[in-house]
Design goal:
Blueprint: E1 8-10, H1 19-34, E2 42-45, H2 47-56, H3 63-78, E3 81-82, E4 88-89, E5 91-97, E6 107-111, H4 117-125, H5 134-153, H6 157-171, H7 181-199, H8 207-221, H9 225-234, E7 242-248, E8 259-266, E9 273-281, H10 285-289, E10 296-297, H11 301-304, H12 306-323, E11 327-334, E12 337-345, H13 350-362, H14 368-373, H15 377-383, E13 387-388, E14 396-399, E15 401-404, E16 407-413, H16 416-424, E17 429-433, H17 441-446, E18 449-452, H18 460-468, E19 471-474, E20 480-482, E21 487-490, E22 493-496, E23 500-504, E24 509-512, E25 517-518, H19 521-527, H20 538-553, E26 557-561, H21 565-573, E27 579-583, H22 593-601, H23 605-629, E28 634-638, H24 651-663, H25 670-681, H26 693-698, H27 702-719, E29 725-730, H28 736-753, E30 762-767, H29 770-774, H30 776-782, E31 785-788, H31 790-798, H32 805-815, H33 832-846, E32 851-854, H34 862-870, E33 875-878, H35 883-892
Parallel strand pairs: 3-4, 16-17, 17-18, 18-19, 26-27, 26-33, 27-28, 28-29, 29-30, 30-31, 31-32, 32-33
Antiparallel strand pairs: 1-2, 2-7, 5-6, 5-7, 8-9, 8-11, 9-10, 11-12, 13-25, 14-24, 15-19, 16-23, 20-21, 21-22, 23-24
Helix pairs in contact: 4-5, 5-7, 5-8, 6-7, 13-20, 15-35, 20-35, 21-23, 22-23, 23-27, 24-25, 27-28, 28-30, 30-33, 34-35
The chain binds phosphoenolpyruvate (PEP) and magnesium ion (MG).
The site of phosphoenolpyruvate has 10 residues, from β27 and α31.
Enzyme class: transferase
Organism: Polymorphospora rubra
EC number: 2.7.9.1
Length: about 900
């Protein structure tokens, strides 16, 4: 970048669409400024400057000069100079990335204070009485040294806290507010010593140096450990960088006519209209967000300061009208003057997302396409979680704020580390804290739910939990949490670590013990047991309307992966338009294992045929049941795929068994032969060995039996007057010759069986071996359809063993950012996705109109559904519960 590259924007130069460059906070401050709302003046350093700094370790050329220009414009606007002794301008230096990362990065307030300007600030804060501004000024100065020391210079935060405790002890108090100006002046002295001891230098007095160092600390906080972890969780790209907002300070802690608060234009938990927010008189913004003191409901501001309250409501209406969406707002009142410190289109729960989108359509503010755009599959998935069944009237031991909905049950833990540890052992845990802070993130991720004693809907716990879709109950202020003793007390009950509690993140109720859960209304709606046209549940109405729109616009069909009649029936109720993958392997387990053993052990053709003859009617009955449930819809049945030894006992166990028998002089009998067969079939890499089509070509009669069972089942249903649509799918094909060989045999059987009852049976293949994708043009000659097995395609494309890598080293790959999400979860567009594209293009070139779908796990992953839409597949197939999610995302992919 050259030195005339623009790295700094004044608020008037930006707008809300520049989030990439100015971050969300900066872009919206600019937007509000241009709307004429009362925003304190300021400017923004771009994410490009941050990226340049992180790449080189130095501020890019030109940045310093541009900051100087904008700073002097800010000084002119305010009529004050940064840190000037008599009448100082102070600024806040705040991070602000494209996507909100609450509490993850750094902020430094009161920049510009030093040994001289502290006196000037005291004068500004004075109400006329001599020395009346002193306490405030010295308190601000000690906060600067503390925040700056901790954030910019890595001074351990406890050191400052200990000094503060000492000062309070000397005063005989436990309350900060009891410290007077002299105490705080002395505390500043102590803080400066701590600062010097840890940094080897004096606390910087030059205002511009303070500013530059704070900016640098914000840049660096992009790569702070907790920020990296949060991004990974939220799938925020690692290379965006943060912008830095430099804003003139306004103070909410100048007395009872000052204060600070947050507001939502609608309820972020339910989406209902109304006035929602929290207010804290005589406090700074950080006090509210941190949830350290208990706030009052925003409505009470009307009583305290009606003029500001009315203005705030007007601004909220302006913002909602302008953004056409729920906005959240941070504001400060400085001596009766209202200032807007932040706004953004607010985070919300899944239920609120659907409800708000639906309301806005009703109000004529957005259309159905936009409503569909504003919800997503992950939210719909959340709404399909179960809720508490309260029919047993469990005792509510306390209530707090239902900050993020859901019904969570688990063992109580009090630290993040313990939560991670127990969850690692497979326990469900509830993380209980007085309040959370960013260090608790790993525990919050590991827990089923989060319970805090303090803080409202906008506390750290609430915001982060909502973002993660995790149940959270906060501000249960009857809760007395004793982390050291490992227990909390509430209304006479003592709850120890390890005890089970149930928390309701919707109602805010806490129950002791395990409360049973019941399915969600949304699931009941999908099941067909709630009628959306008569339902009074607004959520059911909203989901019905929006998913109906998705169904109307989507091009992708949605099928399901189901191997039983029951799953098929449920998926059909959930909207599945057929079966994309019926795995037949489970049909060889249970009682049938013995028959499979006989099949494998057979020495003569007659023995083998006997076993196959015994399996045939069983298989046929399986298919009859499934075809019946999916009458009129396509059912793709995949011929047996896994290696046969999976149906045999383990080599180790059997070997021991036989050895013991021989030792005792007993005859191991049949086990001896079985052991020999297991040995013969043992493979070093069974996933790459004798499975799928290879097995079908090696074991005579196996595929033939399955083809016959499928066709006979279909013929039987046709005879009953039904409409079966079987599609036979051959797994693990890598070469067209494999498929041709299977096809010749299969066609013979099909034509034999269908001589009496005309059934159309398609024969197609999975595309799950990279060679199949690369030779798809040839394979299409012998295939009437393709279905991508993206599980195997990922396994073989990357060379990652499906069963091993997640636990073995994926954590490291995720940590290093080699990928942001497991490629088994969300399709790797660049690599595996390229194989998919090649196969689609070459397959369709060879056979125009070739039907193509996907049946790997990716078929139900929201991101991947968009990819499959883009490359032109005909359908995705996923597990029954993901069918609604895929329907919704397939619709979103179009708009
Ligand atoms: C696949 O490989 O993506 C697939 C659907 O088959 P399976 O998971 O059974 O190997
Ligand atoms: Mg497979």
């Amino acid at each position: 970048a050259t030195s005339n590259h623009k790295y700094v924007y004044g608020f008037a130069e930006g707008n809300k669409d520049l989030k990439d460059l100015l971050g969300g906070k900066g872009a919206n401050l600019a937007e509000m400024t241009n709307l004429g709302l009362p925003v304190p003046p300021g400017f923004i350093i771009t994410t490009e400057a941050c990226k340049a700094y992180l790449a080189t370790g130095a501020e890019p050329d030109g940045l310093a000069a541009q900051v100087a220009t904008h700073l002097s414009a800010l000084e002119t606007a305010m009529g004050k100079r940064l840190g000037a002794p008599a009448d100082p301008l102070l600024v806040s230096v705040r991070s602000g990335a494209k996507f909100s990362m609450p509490g993850m990065m750094e902020t430094v307030l009161n920049v510009g204070l030093n040994d001289e300007s502290v006196t000037g600030l005291a004068n500004q804060a004075s109400d006329g009485g001599p020395g009346s501004g002193d306490r405030f000024a010295w308190d601000s100065y000690r906060r600067l040294i503390q925040m700056f020391g901790k954030t910019v210079c890595d001074v351990p935060g406890e050191e400052f806290e200990h000094a503060l405790d000492d000062a309070k002890r000397a005063r005989g108090t436990t309350n900060d507010l009891d410290l007077d100006a002299d105490d705080l002046r002395a505390l500043v002295g102590a803080y400066k010593k701590i600062f010097a001891k840890h940094t080897g230098r004096e606390f910087p007095q030059a205002p511009r140096e303070q500013l530059d160092l704070a900016v640098r600390a914000v840049f660096e906080s992009w790569n702070a450990e907790r920020a990296v972890l949060y991004r990974r969780q939220e799938r925020i790209p690692a290379d965006l960088g943060t912008a830095v907002n430099i804003v003139a300070m306004v103070f909410g802690n100048l007395g009872p006519d000052s204060g600070t608060g947050v507001a939502f234009t609608r309820d972020p938990a339910t989406g209902n209209q109304g006035i929602y927010g929290d207010y804290l008189a005589n406090a700074q913004g950080e006090d509210v967000v941190a949830g350290i003191r208990n706030t009052i409901p925003l409505q009470e501001l009307e009583r305290i300061d009606k003029r500001s309250y009315d203005e705030l409501l007007r601004i909220m209406a302006t913002l909602e009208g302008h953004y056409r969406d729920l906005c959240d707002i941070e504001f400060t009142i400085e001596r009766g003057k209202l200032w807007m410190l932040q706004t953004r289109v607010g985070k919300r729960t899944a239920a609120a997302a659907f409800n708000i989108a639906n309301h806005l359509v009703d109000e004529g503010i957005i259309d159905l396409d936009e409503a569909l755009h504003r919800v997503n599959g992950a939210q719909l998935a959340q709404l399909m979680f179960p809720r508490f069944d309260l029919s047993g009237s469990p005792e509510v031991v306390t209530t707090g704020v239902g900050a993020s909905p859901g019904a969570a049950v688990g063992r109580v833990v009090f630290t993040s580390a313990r939560a991670v540890e127990l969850a690692g052992q497979g326990e469900r845990v509830i993380l209980v804290r007085r309040e959370t802070n960013p260090d608790d993130l790993p525990g919050m991720i590991a827990a089923q739910g989060i319970l805090t004693a303090r803080g409202g809907k906008t506390s750290h716990a609430a915001v982060v939990a909502r973002g993660m879709g995790k149940t959270c109950l906060c501000g249960a202020d009857n809760l007395d949490v004793d982390v050291k003793a490992g227990r909390f007390t509430v209304g006479g009950h003592v709850v120890n670590e390890g005890d089970i509690v149930s928390i309701d993140g919707t109602s805010g109720c806490l129950y002791l013990g395990e409360v049973p859960v019941r399915p969600s209304e949304v699931v009941q709606y999908f099941e067909g047991s709630v009628d959306p046209t008569t339902s009074t549940d607004p959520l059911v109405v909203a989901v019905h309307r929006i998913i109906g729109h998705a169904d109307g616009v989507r091009r992708l069909r949605v099928r399901t992966n189901a191997d039983t009649g029951e799953d098929a029936a449920r998926a059909r109720r959930f909207g599945a338009e057929g079966i994309g993958l019926c795995r037949t392997e489970h049909m060889f387990l249970g009682d049938r294992r013995e028959l499979v053993e006989r099949l494998i052990l057979a020495r003569a053709e007659t023995e083998r045929n006997e076993a196959l003859d015994a399996l045939l009617p069983l298989q046929r009955a399986d298919f009859v049941e499934i075809f019946r449930e999916m009458d009129g819809l396509p059912v793709t049945v995949r011929l047996i795929d896994p290696p046969l030894h999976e149906f045999l006992p383990s080599l180790e166990e059997l070997a021991v068994h036989v050895a013991v028998a021989q030792e005792r002089g007993e005859d191991p009998g049949k086990d001896q032969a079985l052991l020999a067969a297991v040995r013969r079939m043992h493979e070093q890499n069974p996933m790459l060995g004798l499975r799928g089509v290879r097995l079908g070509l090696v074991i005579p009669g196996l595929f033939a039996m399955q083809v016959r069972a499928i066709t006979e089942a279909a013929a039987q249903l046709v005879a009953e007057g039904r409409d079966p649509r079987p599609e036979i799918m051959v797994p693990l094909v890598g070469a067209v010759q494999e498929l041709e060989t299977v096809r010749v045999e299969a066609e013979k059987i099909i034509s034999e069986v269908t001589r009496e009852h005309a059934v159309e049976v398609l024969i197609g293949t999975m595309i799950e071996v990279p060679r199949a994708a690369l030779t798809a043009g040839q394979i299409a000659e012998a295939a009437e359809f393709f279905s991508f097995g993206t599980n195997d395609l990922t396994q073989m494309g990357w060379g990652f063993s499906r069963d091993d890598v997640e636990g073995a080293f994926f954590w490291r790959y995720l940590e290093l950012g080699i990928f942001g999400i497991s490629p088994f979860e969300s399709l790797d567009r660049d690599g595996v996705g390229r194989l998919v594209r090649i196969a689609v293009d070459e397959g369709r070139a060879a056979r125009p109109g070739l039907k193509i779908g996907v049946c790997g796990e990716h078929g139900g992953d929201p991101e991947s559904v968009h990819f499959f839409h883009e490359v032109g597949l005909d359908y995705v197939s996923c597990s029954p519960f993901r069918v609604p999610v895929a329907r919704l995302e397939a619709g979103r992919a179009v708009i």
